[in-house]
# Entry
Amino acid sequence: MSHTLQAVIFDVDGTLAETERDGHRPAFNAAFREHGLAWEWGVELYGELLAVTGGKERIRRYMERYAPEMLGRDDLDAFIAGLHKAKTRHYVALMETGAIPPRPGVLRLLRELKAAGLRMAIATTTSPENVDALLRHTLHELPEGFFEVIGAGDIVPAKKPAPDIYAWVLERLDLPARACLALEDSRNGVLAARGAGLPVLVAESSYTAGEDFTGALAVLSDLGEPGAPFRTLAGETHGKAWVDAELLRRWAEAP
Ligand code: XBP
Ligand code: MG
# Structure
């Protein structure tokens, strides 16, 4: 049975903008410095740590590997939460400088989908404050309330690759998974979307290039623009050079 596409659900980090290397990573490092810690997450190390989604979870994983002596602190949860709060403050301040632009094709596609009458939502593991900062600065050209549902951060306890955040968004959209399509950049994101029963398109990002995206409809270099076509890394792209509402509909509505 084929289903009519009614909503598109976007991941944030790596999908709407390349926020990890030059956004989240320096914000973590600034928080560590502020707390007097001699921790420095370089570009390569951060790539390894990205296997764990969620900033607090990522700090804990780092401590397990590189600072296990600190795990015995009585106030461990509060210590991590305090570090992460500082990190969020630094990240929001950085986004306010407009330092991180949207990825190619993102603004165009968002506008086209809205014009085509599709509903729009967000499903991310990052904190709500960060999504807000991205919407106000990186995607400031979009009108307020553009995304009907925003699922972010600790609103579900189990982060991607668990399907929970997508299930949460689907429930609020009041739509079945097969009436929606997810856009992701990472294997963890694909696993989360597929786990919730959603068809998913991947535009890989700098940190996720070459990951195993089994289960995705297609894997692209980016969303593409007129004059700057995407590269097809896997899947059938029906002769298109940039992602548009028609291509998403063809994928989502295939039997
Ligand atoms: C990316 C993440 C987040 C960010 C950091 O999420 O895993 O944890 O790296 O944000 P997605 P926080 O790709 O689902 O948008 O520190 O706020 O967790
Ligand atoms: Mg992502």
User: Anything to note?
Assistant: Residues 20-95 form a domain with the DNA polymerase; domain 1 fold (CATH 1.10.150.240). The first strand starts at residue 7 and ends at 10. The mean pLDDT is 97.
